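Lecture notes, continued. The same structure-token format from the folding unit now serves as the input rather than the output. Read the line below as a description of shape only.
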């Protein structure tokens, strides 16, 4: 059985490297699933997705110039739906922003920094 581009085949993970996983088929032939073809999201560590001995379905993408099989798991899974981006709020009127800045300056800003303790300092006894 010749494995051709577009074929979906089950194989066993025989070896895992930093750059991908080697898959062996019942025919004895093997190919590589590059780390970029494991999942739709960024894969930092391939061992988070695959382990040696796992049986996986792969899509044969084709052969490289040396005749080695290029495989993909990602192409067999549906792409995640991106959540809708939040709508951008309209910019406030400049009058409102000026009033807000004036208020914050007068009140000491966020965090209630407007109240000062007598004696100026961190508290405790007054130094002479």
């Amino acid at each position: 059985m010749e494995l051709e581009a577009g074929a979906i085949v089950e194989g066993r993970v025989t070896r895992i490297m930093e750059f991908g996983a080697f898959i062996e088929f019942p025919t004895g032939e093997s190919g590589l699933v590059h780390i970029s073809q494991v999942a739709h999201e960024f894969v930092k560590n391939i061992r988070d997705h695959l382990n040696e001995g796992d049986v996986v379905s792969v899509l044969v993408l084709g052969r490289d110039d040396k005749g080695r099989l290029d495989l993909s798991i990602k192409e067999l899974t549906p792409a995640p739906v991106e959540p809708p981006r939040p709508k951008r709020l309209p910019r406030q009127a400049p009058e409102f922003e000026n009033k807000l800045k004036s208020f914050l300056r007068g009140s000491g800003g966020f965090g209630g920094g407007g109240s000062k303790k007598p004696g100026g300092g961190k508290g405790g006894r007054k130094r002479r």
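Point for the exam: Residues 39 and 77 are 8 Å apart (CA to CA).
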